[in-house]
Write a structure and sequence with these properties.
- The complex is a heterodimer of chains A (113) and B (113).
- With 113 residues, chain A is mainly beta.
- Helices cover 0% and strands 58% of the residues of chain A.
- Chain A has strands at 4-7, 10-14, 19-25, 30-38, 45-51, 56-59, 62-67, 72-77, 86-94, 102-103, 107-112.
- In chain B, a hairpin with a 2-residue loop joins strand 5 (43-51) and strand 6.
- In chain B, the strands form two sheets. In chain B, strands 2, 4, 5, 6, 9, 10 and 11 form a seven-stranded mixed sheet that branches.
- Chain B is mainly beta and 113 residues long.
- The radius of gyration of chain B is 13 Å and the shape is globular.
- Classes of the chains: A mainly beta (113), B mainly beta (113).
- Chains A and B meet through strand 4, strand 5 and strand 10 of A and strand 4, strand 5 and strand 10 of B.
């Protein structure tokens, strides 16, 4: 089955700096890669996603890049703000499982003043 | 995602007791999922269902059971066979199309008395 690895597990940046979270996946058939943000004690919320026919997608301060050859994808947050502090999860879905997602283990991002 | 309702928010289980977590959605989604979240381990899939009266085991189904009698409802029972049930349980739903995101409920925190 699919295996998704996520790094780093914790990340601390100063307000205004950029943050990068990286994920690798094992199944070359995977074709959909969402990113979720989870604040303490709350539900995960989708912040951006990318499909395998696209190499990069941007939404304001958030961008995701996908390298299908290397089987890795990354989340980039620019001009970080304290409200960006949360746990971020990457996930992958492969074509053989219709709707099932495999999640990474999460990255705790702390934005300090 | 106000369309997915989990109840109760907090639940306590006694030794040898079965407990049932409720998940209801009014998003007209075909697929529903149950995840378990433990600190530092991300989201692990317990069961999922893509159609009424059918469901599949996820990665950690032992000690859990589900039913899908209605499209809107996907209750999870934590049985006495689950020896370490203390965790945060998240329900999600999605359309069946392969590039549609999953939407999460607010979760139920289960603890042992």
């Amino acid at each position: 089955g699919e295996n998704v690895e996520q790094h780093p597990s914790t990340l601390s940046v100063q307000e205004g700096d950029s943050a990068v979270i990286k994920c690798t996946y094992s199944d070359s058939a995977s074709n959909y890669f969402p990113w979720y943000k989870q604040e303490l004690g709350k539900r995960p919320q989708l912040i951006i996603d990318i499909r395998s026919n696209v190499g990069e997608k941007k939404d304001q301060r958030i961008a995701v890049t996908l390298n299908k050859t290397a089987k890795h994808f990354s989340l980039h947050i620019t001009e970080t703000q304290p409200e960006d502090s949360a746990v971020y999860f990457c996930a992958a879905r492969n074509t053989g499982t219709a709707s099932k997602l495999t999640f990474g283990t999460g990255t705790r991002l702390q934005v300090t003043l | 995602d106000g369309g997915i309702t989990q109840s109760p928010k907090y639940l306590f289980r006694k030794e040898g007791q079965n407990v049932t977590l409720s998940c209801e959605q009014n998003l007209n989604h075909d697929a529903m999922y149950w995840y378990r979240q433990d600190p530092g381990q991300g989201l692990r899939l317990i069961y999922y269902s893509q159609i009424v009266n059918d469901f599949q085991k996820g990665d950690i189904a032992e000690g859990y059971s589900v039913s899908r009698e209605k499209k809107e409802s996907f209750p999870l029972t934590v049985t006495s066979a689950q020896k370490n049930p203390t965790a945060f349980y998240l329900c999600a739903s999605s359309l069946l199309s392969r590039d549609q995101p999953q939407h999460f409920g607010d979760g139920t925190r289960l603890s042992i008395l």
